[in-house]
């Protein structure tokens, strides 16, 4: 789905030029990559992304940045299922290990997230990226941090 407003520069002082369909939903960038949320709940999520030509790197393989973006998004969706709607959080650290190239088909991200009991405001996620044959092609680990509450929030 293409929206001509997506091509406009973001104005940091203006309201967001798009709306999400719910707390667990894809942003314009994730939609532009063709991601789909297959399931989410109880600290888990499953997302898919078809390998289209626009996601290819110079040798015709699925770009590692696209794989990492899918993993990061799946992790965030899993974490959202553990938090109250509207909670502000961000990725603060991520590691991706690529195990095999992807030459076509659809990749699937299977994410599991939980609260890090040793660190305040911190959640961790682990994601496995699988190809059409269910082979693990990448592993991803990340840490997310909840924003501090502002004075206006109480």
Could you walk me through the main structural features you see in this protein, from its secondary elements to its overall organization?
The chain has one domain: Hotdog Thioesterase (Thiol Ester Dehydrase, Chain A). 14% of the residues lie in helices and 34% in strands. A hairpin with a 5-residue loop joins strand 5 and strand 6. The radius of gyration is 16 Å and the shape is globular. 23% of the residues are buried. The model has no long low-confidence stretch (mean pLDDT 93).
Summed up, what is this model?
The chain has 154 residues and is an alpha+beta fold. It is 14% helix and 34% strand. The chain contains two helices and six strands.
How many strands?
6
Strand content: 25-35%
Q: Give the CATH level 1 class.
A: Alpha Beta
How would you spell out the order of helices and strands?
HEEHEEEE
Separation of the first and last Cα atoms = 39 Å
Structural class: alpha+beta
What is the CATH superfamily label? Hotdog Thioesterase
Residue windows where pLDDT falls under 50 for at least 5 positions:
none
Instruction: Please give the CATH architecture.
Output: Roll
Using the alpha-carbon principal axes, give the shape.
globular
Instruction: Please state how the strands of the largest beta sheet are arranged side by side.
Output: 1-2-4-5-6-3
Rg over CA atoms: 16 Å
